Amino acid sequence: MSRLVIVSNRIADLNNEPVQQGGLAVALVDALRERGGVWFGWNGEIGDRKEEAHVEQHGSITQISLSLTKKDYSEYYLGYANGVLWPLFHYRLDLVRYRSSHFSGYNRVNRKFAAALMPHLKFDDIIWAQDYHLITFARSLRNLGCRQRIGFFLHIPFPPPDLLAASSNHAELVQALMAYDVIGMQTFLDVNNFKRYLTDHTDAEVLENGDVRIGRRTIKVERFPIGMDVEAFGEMSQRITDDVAVDIKRREVLGRKQIIGVDRLDYSKGLPSRVKAFGRMLAKYPEMEKAVTFLQIAPPTREAVDAYSDIRDEMEALTGSVNGKYSDFNWTPIRYIHRSVPRNKLAALFRASQAGFVTPLRDGMNLVAKEYVAAQNPEAPGVLVLSQFAGAAEEMQEALIVNPYDIDEMADKLYAALTMPLNERKERHRALLEKIKRFDAKAWLVGFLKILEGGVEPVPKLPKV
Ligand code: ADP
Ligand code: G6P
What we know:
Layout: E1 4-10, H1 23-35, E2 37-46, E3 54-58, E4 61-68, H2 70-89, H3 100-117, E5 126-130, H4 137-143, E6 149-153, H5 161-165, H6 170-177, E7 182-185, H7 188-201, E8 205-206, E9 212-214, E10 217-223, H8 230-238, H9 242-254, E11 257-262, H10 271-284, E12 292-297, H11 306-326, E13 334-337, H12 343-351, E14 355-358, H13 367-374, E15 383-387, E16 400-402, H14 407-418, H15 422-438, H16 441-454
Parallel strand pairs: 1-2, 1-5, 2-4, 5-6, 6-7, 7-10, 11-12, 11-14, 12-13, 14-15, 15-16
Antiparallel strand pairs: 3-4, 8-9, 9-10
Bound molecules: adenosine-5'-diphosphate and 6-O-phosphono-alpha-D-glucopyranose.
């Protein structure tokens, strides 16, 4: 079995239990341990000292990391990855802030990563790059003479061709992406968007079996919906911490239900509309007053990008206004927590909530939707209210599917979730649980690696670009 080399912008913390970091880290770390491997990426530090890559051994896993300079961080991470690619790929052209120097910085860091990794590669390694930070990474490796198989998984959506074509450098980006051998995406919609772009805007040919032919190369482009470790999370949700137990008891005494939302404070997550929908539900169904609390956990993220500080202000104003209108001395309708919560507590809170409210305007997959289902008690499960624009909605049709732009519909479905009879809740939960078990983290990883390892033809030497 060849050695696996994972490349991601942020590396997993191998000093801590990966279970604290989620199913993806667990699955990747397991695979690396099993076959031996390398995890390569940014160590999270920003400094102007020129430093060599730092190599650390953790059992059979070699971790190779390097820091970014201030200029790298500002141009590659904030400027292009999160100021252009993130909004563009989430269909938000209005939030794109393009500067050509940021695109140059993005390419420079991808070249820097490639140059730092290259000396550590063995001739039969397989390399797997993760996410939108690394679109041009394979091209940089190929330019240094790398002939190993290289896969890419895009964790975020792939936009419709016309949207992508409205951005600067779209042709170069997609051309660079073609230096990968296998390209994985979350949903059928993403794969179709990508293939439509190729057909409409490039010389690439989409073959009958779905492969993409470009020049002398054939590239596999497939859907691999990402999943989580369902059993581990389910078990974790039952180990209730004392503070959560006290809160559950109090709500039981008061006969009060709980709606939960857990997201990074990102504009793609549809948080303001979610708060409005909760407020609308209280207005439309007055019996819900004091009968339910909405717990929204939303830690800060990427705050140096303007669009993120804007959403923070908007959320504070909105939660303040709903709470101002409805709060009483013994009831605060929205509990808004602006920080991260340990994973075991999160699991217990999901289990203790009668509705999971997951309403992104656009999302690659949304693991929170899966975690909410995994954490439920099958004998008395809560109900998932899920945006039609989350990648997860492609599989999870037994959730109450909502349009996150329609506040009234969200309010009605939220009410329906809170008042749904037990039998229907159990039926929906059973179907959803079966699906998330089928498409779990392991299935995602094994499925992708099988295709990446499958091709035995050597990668032809590519012309330098
Ligand atoms: P994204 O990748 O865009 O952040 P996902 O829903 O796919 O969205 O994954 C988010 C992950 O981060 C989930 O595993 C979720 O449990 C975790 N997470 C989100 N918010 C918090 C928080 N406040 N505290 C702890 N974990 C969080
Ligand atoms: C999403 C992206 C990941 C990213 C994570 C946290 O899940 O798909 O690639 O690592 O958000 O964002 P951050 O910018 O803090 O790495």
